[in-house]
Amino acid sequence: MKVRIYFANVFKLLDVFPKAFNLLTPERKAKTLRYRKEDDRLRSLCAGLLLRRHLNVRNDDDMTTDDKGRPRLKAEKPRLSISHSGSLCALAVSDGTVGLDLEYLGREIKEDGLARRVLTPEEYAVYAQRLKDPEYFFSVWTRKESVMKATGMGLSLDPASIRVIPLSKEEHFVMNGKWWFQTFEVADHIFSVCGSEGPLDVNLTENDAEDLLADPDAPGNGGTSR
């Protein structure tokens, strides 16, 4: 299953905010302005630009939600998943069911109780053996979150019910179904993507502000492949 992931540093949009904001759909503009913190506004702005550039979302009626509340194109395919954390925002696109989650490695894990609640006993044992390494925790967590997003169940699905180790394996049985994964680190962030069909063939492309402001009909998708 082919998955294309496009991502950008949201803070690089700060200097072009007015121009970029004018490219958003009315609904995305309203959503962006509802955020009080500048960081959150930039993440929302970046998500809208990624959708415009790579999926040609220019009007509110280009997007809808399915019966589980997942955002999707009115045309149904390709499927998509959006995630943001820290300085990055990313969009995953595929013809199959896909889920994407990313987390900033500098995010503080404030309490051990959180790890005990969201990890299975086996996952927590490895976490403890690794001296509570945040890279391991977020590698496991983003895999779980990617499934929660792909299924549309969100936090109604108990994270501790999802077993995603060993991390060296690309496929795991979750909810009696098989999901394929890839997990990787980019610019101090952990990315995990899951798909309903596998193995996954992931293409990762970084966009700068110029790429995101370009017309969707322009040749190619811009950006730098990784």
Topology:
Blueprint: E1 2-9, H1 17-21, H2 26-34, H3 38-55, E2 63-65, E3 71-73, E4 79-85, E5 88-94, E6 98-104, H4 112-118, H5 121-129, H6 134-151, E7 171-174, E8 177-186, E9 189-195, E10 201-207, H7 209-213, E11 224-225
What's the short story on this structure?
The chain is α+β, with helices and mostly antiparallel strands and 226 residues long. 31% of the residues lie in helices and 29% in strands. α2 runs antiparallel to α3.
Structural features, described:
The chain is 31% helix and 29% strand. The chain is of the alpha+beta class and 226 residues long. It has a single domain (2-214), classed as Ribosomal Protein L22, Chain A. The strands form 3 sheets. It has a 5-stranded mixed beta sheet. A hairpin with a 2-residue loop joins strand 7 (171-174) and strand 8. The longest helix has 18 residues, at 38-55.
Can you tell me the number of structural domains?
1
What would CATH call the class? Alpha Beta
State the CATH superfamily name: 4'-phosphopantetheinyl transferase domain
Low-confidence stretches: none
Strand arrangement, major sheet: 4-5-1-10-11
Q: What is the tally of beta strands? A: 11
Distance between the termini: 18 Å
Coarse shape: globular
Which range best describes the helical content: under 10%, 10-25%, 25-40%, 40-55%, 55-70% or over 70%?
A: 25-40%
Q: Biggest sheet, open or closed, and with what strands and sense?
A: 5 strands, mixed
Could you state the order of secondary-structure elements as H and E?
EHHHEEEEEHHHEEEEHE
Radius of gyration: 17 Å
- CATH topology (fold) name: Ribosomal Protein L22, Chain A
Tally of DSSP helical segments: 7
Structural class: alpha+beta
Q: What oligomeric arrangement do these chains adopt? A: single chain
Instruction: Examine the secondary-structure arrangement and name the CATH architecture.
Output: Alpha-Beta Complex
Question: Quick check: average pLDDT?
Answer: 93
